[in-house]
């Protein structure tokens, strides 16, 4: 393997060994055994990685930890808002599926559209960024509301329930029943609610580093199929959400 490949193998070893803050770190022997290289080669490799700030060595234990350069880069990378982090992946998904993609978040009991991505199939029925919609009347809003307990949802709406479109939950009890199902499924569906003839699928992501929660959504023409949505579309949305979660230290809710 090349020096770059060996350095990558060392960094991957931190994950394989479960090295986190407070962990003693990797020993020289850990690296020799993992890479199966001569000790002299490993010694030069670790010394180079240390000099470049990729690794740091504890003065007492002589164990290795992730260095300041990598920590600075990853900290900057992971601190970006999920709205921005997820945008390239959602743009690619919208282009691949032909659907309209959205990234949204809650503001009180409203859903606010933060980003919109055109798919290949043009439709005039769009909800542009900045739009505010009743959260209870959208798949995106409901997947975000499902992150709260039933008691918290009832407190949110008990004095502010507003009439919703005919295909949306018509009572607070009906909304709570839908949210209970969404918590089990971990995704949400809306059909012909905010816009007639339009359906949407949504999932939620949470960035544990700074408490940022957003919903990823694909909007498409309603179908007459028995499942009410294309299963392959849900699979692609969940796969994209999982990729974003893995890259940015987020959790697929």
Automatic annotation (TrEMBL):
<dbReference type="GO" id="GO:0003700">
    <property type="term" value="F:DNA-binding transcription factor activity"/>
</dbReference>
<keyword id="KW-0804">Transcription</keyword>
<dbReference type="GO" id="GO:0003677">
    <property type="term" value="F:DNA binding"/>
</dbReference>
<dbReference type="Pfam" id="PF09339">
    <property type="entry name" value="HTH_IclR"/>
</dbReference>
<dbReference type="InterPro" id="IPR036388">
    <property type="entry name" value="WH-like_DNA-bd_sf"/>
</dbReference>
<dbReference type="InterPro" id="IPR029016">
    <property type="entry name" value="GAF-like_dom_sf"/>
</dbReference>
<keyword id="KW-0805">Transcription regulation</keyword>
<dbReference type="InterPro" id="IPR005471">
    <property type="entry name" value="Tscrpt_reg_IclR_N"/>
</dbReference>
<dbReference type="InterPro" id="IPR014757">
    <property type="entry name" value="Tscrpt_reg_IclR_C"/>
</dbReference>
<dbReference type="GO" id="GO:0045892">
    <property type="term" value="P:negative regulation of DNA-templated transcription"/>
</dbReference>
<dbReference type="InterPro" id="IPR050707">
    <property type="entry name" value="HTH_MetabolicPath_Reg"/>
</dbReference>
<feature type="domain" description="IclR-ED">
    <location>
        <begin position="69"/>
        <end position="250"/>
    </location>
</feature>
<dbReference type="Pfam" id="PF01614">
    <property type="entry name" value="IclR_C"/>
</dbReference>
<feature type="domain" description="HTH iclR-type">
    <location>
        <begin position="1"/>
        <end position="68"/>
    </location>
</feature>
<dbReference type="InterPro" id="IPR036390">
    <property type="entry name" value="WH_DNA-bd_sf"/>
</dbReference>
<keyword id="KW-0238">DNA-binding</keyword>
<protein>
    <submittedName>
        <fullName>IclR family transcriptional regulator</fullName>
    </submittedName>
</protein>
